[in-house]
Structure formats: structure tokens, C-alpha cells
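User: Here's a protein and a ligand (adenosine-5'-triphosphate). What would the complex look like?
Assistant: Let me lay out the input and then the predicted complex.
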Amino acid sequence: MAIKKIIAFGSAKGGVGKSSITASIAISLSKKCKVGILDADIYGPNQNILFSIKEKPIIKNKLIKPIIKNNIEITSMGLILENDVAATWRGPMLSGAIKQLIHSTDWGELDYLLIDMPPGTGDAYLTIFNELEVDNFILINTSHILSLADSNRTISMLNKLNVNILGYIENNIFNAGKKTINFFETKRINKLATYSFHERIYNFDPEFNCEESNDVAKKIYEMT
Ligand SMILES: Nc1ncnc2c1ncn2[C@@H]1O[C@H](COP(=O)(O)OP(=O)(O)OP(=O)(O)O)[C@@H](O)[C@H]1O
Ligand SMILES: [Mg+2]
């Protein structure tokens, strides 16, 4: 794979904006760089929906051609499964599906591959970090105490797996205006941005120029 940098976006907590923020940053980064998105959420793939992908991918020489939208190469289990069909797989099958997405995708030359991580800390994480050399991890968090508790777990797992945490993004969807606890300072994790509530992230609009995403994209570009 001719991929220069791999950056995973995740948090053990569900519903904190991992997929929306990954998509939004991919759009910002793609103005300067060649970008791909690996939607690693096998049970709840969303990138196909965020980018309104209707077509099925072409399979050539046993390799899946990613779908190109907004100049971004995208692959997702959502391109293969119908939207209303659930993958009810146990751990080994889940890992197999992730491995297939990783190794059977025919990526072009990419400056950045962004991984939209699923919630949780289980098999998916172990498989992804075993199969790919992930350069950096960006933690997505809301300032809610439950989100912080799950971030703590995520950080402990990343430390065990020796994954470098580039920083965290606070997504202020639920707690606009509340002060963040200095939790990340004590963990020595940099803040990369604070997202405010965006109607157009809520109704994802790939043409939307999100200032916070542009800022993070610039930081990623400078820091990696
Ligand atoms: N900054 C924001 N402004 C408005 N809505 C947002 C924002 N961030 C996320 N949302 C909304 O919150 C919901 C959850 O976002 P999203 O699906 O991106 O989270 P997730 O962490 O990827 O979830 P999951 O754990 O299920 O994968 C979505 O409806 C999304 O539109
Ligand atoms: Mg998601």
C-alpha cells in the first residue's frame, strides 16, 4: 500500500461524533492532500451514508476499488452490505471482515488514510492495530463525565498497544459552554480543536466548510 500516514479517529464511547468529524476532516485535508477513509465500523458503517454513496464498489483481481467522493477514496462495509442488513458476527468473523477491508482494498497513492473507528475497545481495535501501522490516534470526546470515563479506558488501551496519541478533539454537541475538566492536561494530551454544534454536520453536508476541521487538518499537516 502506498500510504504515507495512517491516522485513526476513535473513542470507546459511542455517538460522540467520530464518523462525522473524520468525514469533515477528510474533506478539509483533501484540499491539499490525497486522502482515503477506511470505515472500520463493521456493525454500524456510516461513511457510505455521510458521503451519500449509492453505487457498489467494483471488484477487480480480488481487490475492492474504493469509491471516490469529494476526491476522497472511501471504503466501508456499508458499501457491501445493504443499509438495513446487520452484520451479526462474532469476534473472529468481525476481525476477518476488518482484515478484508484493510488488505483487499486497492488504495491509490495516499498522503493520509483516516480510519473511522467503531465504539468500544475490543476485537476491532486489536485487529486494526495488529494489521496496520497506525501512525497516530486522535481521540474524540465530549465534556460529559461518561465520555471522559470511556476516554480514560481508550487511553489505557492505546498505551498498552503503544499507539501514539496526537491529541484530542472536544465535540461540544451536548455540553456547549461547559468547562472541560483538566483531565487531558494531566494525561499530557494536546487539545486539537473544539467543535461546536453544527446543523450541517448533523445533516452531513460534504460541501460544508467547517472551520474546526480546517484547523485540525492544518495541525495534522504540520504535526505529522
Ligand atoms: N458537532 C456536531 N454538531 C451537530 N451534530 C453532531 C456533531 N457531532 C456529531 N453530531 C451528531 O451526533 C450523532 C452521532 O455522531 P456520529 O455518528 O458521527 O458519532 P460516532 O461517534 O461516529 O457514533 P458511533 O459510536 O455510533 O460510531 C449524529 O447524529 C451526528 O450528526
Ligand atoms: Mg461512527
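Summary: The chain has one domain: 2-223.
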